[in-house]
Amino acid sequence: MRLCVINPNTSSAMTLKIGEQARRAAGPGTEILAVNPDMGPASIESHYDDAVAVLGVLDVIRRGEAQGCDGYVLACFGDPGLAAAREAARGPVIGIAEAAMHAASFVATGFSVVTTLTRTCVIAEHLAEAYGMARFCRSVRGTDIPVLDLEHDDPAAYAEILAACRRALSEDRSGAIVLGCAGMSDLALRLRTELGVPVIDGVGMAVRLVESLVALGIATSKQGDYADPIPKPYTGLTAGFARTARTA
Question: At the N or C end, where does the chain have fewer CB atoms within 10 A?
Fold first, then answer.
């Protein structure tokens, strides 16, 4: 099967890291296309960034559909444009926050999210509510590490993330850690070893979940609000995003 793993920001270095982790998680025979949009923010660290990034995500999905992709992973912890992506794609689409939170709830009665900028914590809190995970999510902790600082190995950033995880386990009484940024995906195994608890990377988890759905022949329902978008004129900068009726 062919899966498209979308980094919704425009950092090619971040996309490379995400692709490496997705391939490590994928099963035999799964082809991973790790891509980022040609337009949008360099990193997603606000509601504004999140909103602007969605058109880039939809543009990548349009290309993925033409390339025969069987499913998609949204590799940003804000899960930007997830509902719209599900309307636009034939195959299943899973966001890494959604995947990681649900996985953590399977292995612990409570988890803490450790993320990047403190200002983005509210986005993860809103997602926990939307996904029915609020009763499991005991805290969302910001480290104030900029997203792009995670493009490459940074010992200082790792030390701060590790310290935040230790505080979460001690102060929140959590049994698991959810990493709140796709740029942290390469840290999961190391953190799991040091902390001795489940540390959930949403990139790998979402890849495995999409693989399972595709293997079972399960796609997003096109009955109801995930049906194909209604064809209609779009104007101005969005003209190229107008939908036409599907023939198959």
Answer: C
